[in-house]
Each structure stands twice: as C-alpha cells, then as structure tokens.
Design goal:
Length: 315
C-alpha cells in the first residue's frame, strides 16, 4: 500500500478544476486502478470532458482524444498500414488508440462498426490490423462520454459494447454554492491550463499491482455472486448481468477498499460500487419503466434483499 497516498494527490489535483465531485473522481479512479474502462453519461456542460482532461493532466501518461463523428472509420482509431515509397514496404502508422488514456468523446455519435473497433482494445489491451496484433501501452483506459438525452443522429451502444465498460458514471448538476465557485474559478482563466502532473506512469502501474493484492474473503465473493445472480431471476429484468459483471464488481470493490486505505474488502465497498458497475448491463421490461421503475431503483431493491455477510469477519 506504499502508493496509496498518491490517490489523494490525484483527487485534490482534479478538484482544482472539477468542483464538488470527489465521489465521481473516485469512481473514475476505481476504473483506472482496477484496469477497467468508464462510460460517463450525462447532459452536456456538466464537466464530463473537463474531468477526463483534468485527470489526464494529473497523470504522467500519454493522452489521446478521439472525437466520434458519423464519418469516423475504425482505421482512424486503430491505425493503418501505409506504403513507404523509399523502402517499398508497408509500415504501420498507429492511430490515437496507442496511448494510455483515451477520451472517446460522444461515442454514440459514430457507427456501430467504428464503436466495435474499441472492443478488442478495451478487453484485451491490444489491436489487430491486417492479421497482425499490436500490444497497447500500459496503463490503458478508455473514458467514453455520451449524452443520454439527444438521440437524433446517434447510435446507441450495443449490449456487448456496454458490457466492456466497468462502470457507467453520472456527474450530475452542481449545487448553487458549487456553481458559484465554478464561476469564480473560470472567470479570468481556465484552471485546467495550470494543472500539474502529480503521479508518474510507473507509480500508476505499481498502484494497480497493489490493488490486486487487496484481500477479499470467500464470503464477500459469494455476496458479489449473489447480488449479480439476483439480476437474472427478477421478473422485471429481461437481461441480467453477465459473469464479466461479477469480475468487474470484485475488482472495483478491491479498488474502492484501496482508495479507502484498507487492504481488505468489506460489504460496504461492494455496495458503494454495485449500481455503477451493474446498471448499464441489465435491461428491464418496457412496461416496468412505464410504471416509474428504473435500473437504479431495481438494483437498490436488490441491495436491500440480499443478505450481507457477517461484519465480525471484516473488523
């Protein structure tokens, strides 16, 4: 746990730009530390892109922004073979995917074919072009954004694509005091331009290794499986969460414990990441939605229904 203090450094640094959203920053960090990917879904203007840029500037890593548009091609992301006129041979020119932190901005504005070009990179940390595989740099994380309100000219992510994201995160509006603070910070300058690097790439890799060492008891593992299994046998849900969801929930719980300065996972760690890890992986019946139910509400009921393991094991 030697690099745990670096987490606070990152949160405080990002907080110089993003006001009052410590929990949101923590959730993005959970994805980074557990080698997952995050989908930030919210209305325009609440700071999705700004948060990702602030995080990227805080980390000593390469950063690429991909603006997703209807005419974007898979090769615009992964790269393409180009003929070198001097040698007469094809050389591979890497696309923006060959970076550590990828901002996939407005990912739902491009075609499913182009969206799918990210799948191999997100899951296997590699890309294959013309039958040749290229390993991506580490650490590697895709942070995608999308607007849940505007549907014209968009291509909703398919279930298989959504399942690759460890978390779906909403930023939300600031309260009035926070918004006043935002106005004052941005009145004369953009604080993002003055942000400094606080963590080096090698330190992030060491933090990721430390997260994997966080202890998780057998009973906590069974608790995770019980929560995920419950999504598959409720009558309101037509598509339940997959085993990949259980894996992501376990890893996210380890990262949450790490951020909370513990070397073991508690049931509360699981609870605090459960909705963000699972909500985008389930589908509920249309008639249930008409009655005012949502994925978040149903998952909240599941949390209250599943028995929590005995606390005496985790004190």
């Amino acid at each position: 746990m030697g690099y745990r203090t670096k987490v606070n450094d990152i949160i405080q640094n990002v907080g110089e730009v993003i006001v009052g959203k410590k929990e949101v920053v923590e959730k993005v960090l959970i994805c980074l530390l557990s080698e997952g990917n995050a989908l930030l879904e919210d209305v325009p203007g609440v700071g999705k892109t700004m948060l990702i840029k602030a995080l990227a500037k805080s980390l000593g890593c390469d950063f690429s922004r991909i603006q997703f548009t209807p005419d974007l091609l898979p090769s615009d992301i992964t790269g393409v073979n180009i003929l070198n006129p001097k040698t007469g041979e094809f050389e591979f020119k890497f696309g923006p995917i060959m970076s550590n932190i990828i901002l996939a901005d407005e990912i739902n504005r491009t075609s499913p074919k182009t969206q799918s070009s990210l799948l191999e990179a997100m899951e296997e940390k590699q890309v294959t072009v013309d039958n040749k595989t290229y390993k991506l740099q580490e650490p590697f994380i895709v942070l995608a954004t999308q607007n849940p309100i505007e549907y014209e000219g968009t291509f909703p992510l398919l279930e298989a694509q959504l399942d690759r994201f460890m978390m779906k995160i909403s930023i939300g509006y600031p309260n009035e005091d926070e918004e006043i603070m935002i106005l004052r910070r941005f009145k004369n300058k953009n604080p993002l331009f003055e942000l400094k690097e606080v963590v080096k790439r090698e330190e992030i890799l060491k933090m990721q290794r430390e997260v994997k060492e966080v202890y998780i008891d057998d009973k906590i593992e069974r608790y995770i499986v019980s929560l995920v299994s419950r999504t598959r046998n409720r009558e309101e849900i037509i598509i339940g969460a997959s085993p990949r969801a259980s894996i992501h929930l376990l890893k996210a719980s380890q990262a949450k414990a790490y951020i909370n300065d513990r070397d073991y996972v508690t049931p509360d760690d699981v609870k605090q990441v459960f909705i963000e890890v699972i909500s985008h992986r389930i589908a509920i019946k249309p008639e249930i939605k008409l009655r005012g139910y949502s994925e978040v509400k149903i998952l909240g009921e599941i949390l209250s229904e599943v028995k929590v393991p005995g606390a005496k094991l985790y004190v």
